[in-house]
């Protein structure tokens, strides 16, 4: 579990930041301050300054001997720093991180691994890589930008190969995306693939776009959304599907006029998500099994309610990076 602490912290802090407070306060509505969060995040930074580990036992943050960066930890660390107001990523060697990011990509097939060594890979790791590139590039100083422009090949990974991997190997005949070629399409992987394509500024072909819209629209059940065909509706998919529909519209080819199917019933989806709220204070996976809330489903439930705009007490979420829109706007 220690390897997941950065991700767990991201879920907790972002959930807290999406919930409006009655008090006008500078620090987060939690038992820690932004400065304390920022300090802990930087304690997980590799000595080289170009990556993050997921927690202090991988290894202890005082030395990091033998530690390797993980794309999910890097993505969530940057999201946390943005929410703490560190828009320039002060403690990170941003140019080194851009160079390091290239070593996570498979040169032949274009996909990204979670680790630099051969390891698990799918649209999730590809999304993390695209998001890291986007955030780090936005945070570059004028001098750093000039260095990148002077030698772009040293700092850029192969975007075309990554986009080709997502569209050619991960998109199935149903229009959704899976973790491997010819596997069953999945709403979570679809969100990651579409968000990555948006971050890479890649448009979809007309046929791919229309099939993706259909796959997403068909995921709404009696109220909420399912991840795959013939599966139960699940609170986290309310975010992934609705966020995907918002993102995919920006990937629409100019020649396509195909918007009617985007009109989903936000009201009944938000009602389903609210039914997943538990007596313990968090959200569960299902509306009929409320004994085990968790931070993942709590975050994505709150984010889904934000997208539905049915709750005045919840702030707007930016679907592309899954952080509060006010933090995203201040960053860019």
Structural features, described:
The chain is mainly α and about 325 residues long. It folds into 2 domains: about 1-150, Glycosyltransferase; about 205-330, Glycosyltransferase, CATH 1.50.10.20. Helices cover about 50% and strands about 0% of the residues. Strands 1-2 form a two-stranded antiparallel ribbon. Helix 1 (about 5-20) runs parallel beside helix 13 and helix 12 (about 265-275) runs antiparallel to helix 13. It starts with a helix and ends with a helix. The mean pLDDT is about 90.
Descriptive key words:
332 residues; 14 helices; two-stranded antiparallel ribbon; Glycosyltransferase; globular; mainly alpha; 2 strands
Write the layout of secondary structure elements.
Layout: H1 5-18, H2 34-43, H3 71-83, H4 94-102, H5 123-139, H6 142-150, H7 152-155, H8 159-170, H9 187-199, H10 206-217, H11 235-248, H12 266-275, H13 295-308, E1 317-318, E2 323-324, H14 325-331
Antiparallel strand pairs: 1-2
Helix pairs in contact: 1-3, 1-13, 2-3, 3-5, 4-5, 5-9, 9-11, 10-11, 11-13, 12-13
């Amino acid at each position: 579990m220690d390897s997941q602490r950065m991700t767990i912290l991201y879920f907790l802090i972002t959930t807290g930041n999406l919930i409006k407070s009655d008090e006008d306060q500078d620090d987060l509505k939690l038992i820690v301050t932004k400065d304390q969060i920022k300090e802990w995040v930087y304690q997980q930074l590799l000595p080289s300054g170009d990556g993050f580990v997921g927690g202090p036992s991988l290894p202890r943050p005082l030395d990091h001997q033998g530690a390797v960066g993980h794309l999910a930890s890097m993505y969530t660390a940057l999201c946390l720093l943005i929410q703490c107001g560190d828009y320039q990523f002060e403690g990170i060697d941003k140019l080194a991180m851009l160079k390091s990011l290239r070593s996570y990509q498979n040169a032949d097939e274009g996909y990204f691994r979670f680790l630099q060594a051969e390891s698990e890979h799918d649209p999730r790791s590809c999304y993390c890589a695209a998001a890291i590139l986007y955030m780090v590039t936005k945070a570059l100083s004028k001098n750093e930008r000039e260095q990148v422009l002077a030698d772009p090949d040293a700092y850029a990974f192969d975007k075309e190969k990554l986009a080709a991997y997502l569209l050619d190997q991960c998109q199935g005949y149903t229009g959704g995306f899976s973790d491997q070629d010819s596997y069953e399409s999945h709403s979570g992987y679809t969100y990651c693939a579409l968000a990555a394509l948006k971050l890479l500024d890649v448009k979809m072909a007309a046929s791919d776009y229309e099939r993706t819209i259909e796959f997403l629209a068909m995921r709404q059940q009696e109220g909420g959304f399912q991840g795959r065909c013939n599966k139960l509706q699940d609170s986290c998919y309310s975010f992934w599907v609705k966020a995907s529909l918002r993102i995919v519209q920006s990937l629409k080819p100019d020649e396509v006029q195909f918007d009617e199917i985007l009109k989903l019933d936000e009201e009944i989806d938000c009602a389903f998500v609210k039914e997943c709220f538990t007596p313990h204070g968090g959200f569960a996976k299902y509306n009929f099994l409320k004994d085990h809330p968790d931070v993942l489903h709590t975050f994505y439930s709150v984010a889904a309610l934000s997208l539905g705009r049915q709750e005045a007490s919840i702030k707007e979420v930016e679907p592309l990076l899954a952080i509060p829109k006010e933090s995203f706007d201040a960053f860019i």
